[in-house]
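Tokens in:
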């Protein structure tokens, strides 16, 4: 059971009708120049589009960018923003390709650059390194990972030598260590996480090439559907959809090998489908699809052990499928599939608690993944 499959695919005519309804519901869109904030982007698979917003850094409120949503490939399910803020990329699960959009620095409007870049079968997740030099794409049906170098001048993608690289069955999620040294791939059909060292481009290794980490794959619980790494690169967490837990693993800084933390896996709500670590590295959040809530934990900085907050879980919207925080760590955002909205929680800087929520925006169709420009 995957959020992209539940979302389904609709035709171009319906996508256009929805886009008009979206704009009407916004009550007058903003160009983004009138508020102090940052850009945010939302993948909406059913509309074959990417929505763009301006987010107020003080209130956390969303304002739709003029012309949003912006048409793209078929069923975009995962997105990434270039660290320069100039480009955004979308993995189009239904089109077996990657879209590149240019971001207008003044308005936040998107313009797709054609042609789209071919990927493997059903690309379901993508991540970019911190320097914006490489993109990694998990291809769910072809059981491999495509790797592309990124042009700094125009954002275009070039597949590297040796790509795609074979991985486990049904790769559904990726996590790249902050250093860019290690890539981890969750296998949705297996209770395993596959780990790879990422070539730096020195010697005979092509930059971005993938070599299995000794001891890989690493055992977790059943159906790991989402991965997250803390900002220091010490721990990796996997949301185990089928067994209502999250696995915590320590990352060996030299080899990238994974070792389960004490007490792992940790209990969650029902059907945990998305996991994220707070920018401070102190807190962990898990979206529980079937119980309509968010589990919240403190993270021990030495051991990686996750301890659930006293008032956790916190009620979210109907069928939360994705959870993330803004780069400053002030707000937690939850994409609710059935409710077709984005919940916003204010995060307590001391405790990590999220006691109350508001609806930042309604989306009219099921949202998939939300990302922020730095």
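Residues out:
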């Amino acid at each position: 059971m995957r959020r992209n499959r539940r979302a389904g695919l609709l035709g171009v005519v319906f996508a256009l009708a929805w886009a008009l309804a979206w704009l009407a519901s916004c009550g007058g869109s903003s160009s983004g120049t009138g508020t102090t904030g940052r850009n945010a982007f939302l993948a909406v698979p059913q509309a074959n589009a990417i929505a763009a917003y301006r987010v107020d850094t003080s209130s956390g409120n969303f304002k739709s960018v003029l012309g949003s949503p912006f048409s793209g490939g078929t069923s975009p399910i995962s997105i990434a923003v270039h660290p320069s803020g100039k480009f955004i990329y979308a993995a189009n699960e239904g089109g077996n390709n990657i879209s590149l959009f240019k971001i207008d620095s003044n308005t936040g409007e998107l313009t797709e650059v054609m042609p789209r870049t071919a990927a493997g079968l059903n690309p379901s997740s993508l991540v970019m390194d911190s320097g914006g030099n490489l993109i990694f794409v998990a291809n769910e049906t072809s059981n491999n990972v495509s790797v592309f170098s990124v042009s700094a001048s125009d954002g275009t993608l070039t597949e590297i030598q040796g790509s795609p690289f074979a991985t486990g069955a049904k790769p559904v999620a990726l996590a790249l260590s902050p250093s860019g040294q290690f890539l981890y791939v969750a296998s949705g059909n297996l209770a395993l996480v596959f780990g790879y060292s990422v070539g730096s481009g020195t010697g005979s290794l092509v930059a971005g090439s993938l070599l299995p980490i000794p001891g890989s794959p690493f055992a977790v619980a059943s159906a790991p559907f989402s991965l997250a790494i803390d900002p220091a690169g010490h721990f990796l967490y996997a949301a185990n959809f089928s067994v209502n837990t999250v696995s915590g693993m320590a990352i060996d800084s030299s080899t990238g090998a994974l070792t389960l933390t004490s007490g792992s896996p940790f209990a969650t709500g029902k059907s945990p489908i998305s996991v994220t670590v707070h920018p401070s590295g102190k807190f962990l959040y898990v979206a529980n699809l079937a119980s309509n809530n968010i589990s919240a934990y403190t993270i021990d900085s030495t051991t990686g052990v996750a301890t659930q907050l006293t008032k956790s879980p916190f009620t979210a919207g109907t069928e939360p499928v994705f959870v993330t925080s803004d780069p400053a760590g002030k707000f937690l955002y939850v994409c609710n599939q059935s409710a077709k909205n984005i919940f916003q929680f204010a995060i307590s800087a001391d405790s990590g608690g999220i006691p109350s929520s508001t609806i930042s925006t309604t989306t009219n169709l099921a949202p998939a993944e939300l990302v922020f420009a730095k």
